[in-house]
Design brief:
four-stranded antiparallel beta sheet; Beta-prop_EIPR1-like; 373 residues; WD40_rpt; 2 helices; mainly beta; repeat
């Protein structure tokens, strides 16, 4: 794929769920659709052939309902979980749930022309349904579900008013965290802290960020960042290389980076978007590179180099990039709900908008060489 040309993949139904596939040498992303039509939702596996820039896809059925959130397992390349909403015509009610599936194969690129014609003529395939976890109250909303970073048998599910760690095999609740008293401020999302022994789960609660220790049931956060945004906080991501740094994004159009040991003020802040920011992601290898996606129909590649020019021992490193937007990607025509880095290739990323458009792009070569050289 040429660095200056993004590749666009269009789907039939609206989309807001995207995940890179882990534990693979291929550049693969999984997309979940959000159609209101019964038995019409799908999971698309999209693989980029790096040498030629060709896209290869496989499509799987997701008849259980519209997909609001999707995460591939970091432990098994063929396993994924979806947060979904399904409509029951008998009760006229919608019920959310989290389901775990296994793909029948992870191979996407055909080995010869005969395979290619067979794939192109094939309808959506079935996934193996392993487990569905439903809320105790059928009307309760589920915001997202995240695999535990190291324990293959655990997932954290963010509900409206609590975070519950579930056993993947039985669905049983192993630990829970919820605020003291009856808070009117609902949880809107969350993520495992990859540091601190993999026992902390951070959640977004209105404008705030709260992090709970999941080793026991608890009501008080281990740490918090109050008023992380002036309006609703939409997403967060932990710096993979620095254990106390995380980035957040919100409806105030801001990208903020925090040292949560002192969360009074962000250590880095940008407001380059013109509308709500739905997603923020650190590059796995190069922490000064961040992706954001917004309702202004843009994905931005931003450098936060000034706070990454010190090593863990406090020694100053050379700052190779200037802070600010490196590139704006404007191939979308609707809200960009997701942006994800490839798990296999650190310079490639994907952005996904509600108008069923996936855009695959690369970090411009001159920025890449500045970082590497």
């Amino acid at each position: 794929m040429d660095e200056g040309n993004s590749i666009i993949y269009g789907l039939e139904h609206q989309t807001r769920a995207l995940s890179p596939q882990y534990e693979s040498d291929a550049i693969r992303f999984l997309i979940g659709t959000q159609s209101l039509k019964p038995h019409s939702n799908q999971v698309h596996v999209v693989e980029l052939e790096e040498d030629t820039g060709a896209l290869h896809t496989k499509v799987f059925k997701h008849d259980i309902g519209e997909i609001w959130h999707l995460r591939c397992s970091p432990h098994d390349v063929a396993t994924l979980l979806t947060t979904h909403n399904s409509y029951d015509p008998e009760t006229s009610q919608c019920t959310m749930g989290v389901s775990i599936f296994k793909l029948p194969t992870v191979e996407v690129i055909p080995k010869d022309l005969d395979d290619l014609s067979a794939i192109q003529g094939r309808n959506a395939e079935e996934m193996e349904h392993l487990k569905t976890i439903s809320p105790e109250k059928p009307e309760e909303e589920i915001r997202c579900a995240e695999w535990h970073p190291t324990d293959v048998n655990r997932i954290g599910i963010v509900y409206e008013n609590s975070v519950i760690v579930h056993d993947v095999n039985t669905g049983a609740a192993l630990a829970s965290a919820s605020p003291e008293g009856k808070s009117r401020l609902k949880f809107t999302g969350g993520k495992w802290n990859p540091h601190q022994g993999h026992c902390q789960f951070a959640v977004l609660q209105d404008m705030h960020i709260k992090c709970y220790d999941t080793r026991t049931d608890c009501s008080k956060p281990a740490w918090s960042i109050d008023n992380a945004h002036r309006q609703l906080a939409r997403d967060l991501d932990f710096n993979p290389n620095r254990q106390f740094h995380l980035a957040s994004a919100g409806d105030d159009a801001a990208l903020n980076i925090w040292d949560y040991r002192n969360g009074k003020e962000p250590i880095f802040s940008r407001t380059d978007h013109s509308h709500w920011v739905w997603t923020v992601r650190y590059n796995t290898y190069h922490e000064q590179l961040l992706l954001t996606g917004s309702s202004d129909a843009r994905a931005l590649l931003t450098a936060a180099a000034s706070i990454c020019d010190m090593d863990e021992d406090g020694r100053r490193l050379s700052q190779v990039l200037e802070d600010g937007v490196l590139q704006s990607y404007e191939q979308h025509e609707d809200s960009v709900y997701c942006a994800e880095w490839s798990a296999a290739e650190p310079w490639t990323f994907a952005s996904l908008s509600y108008d069923a458009r996936l855009v695959l792009s690369r970090v411009p070569r001159h920025f890449k060489y500045k970082i590497l050289l």
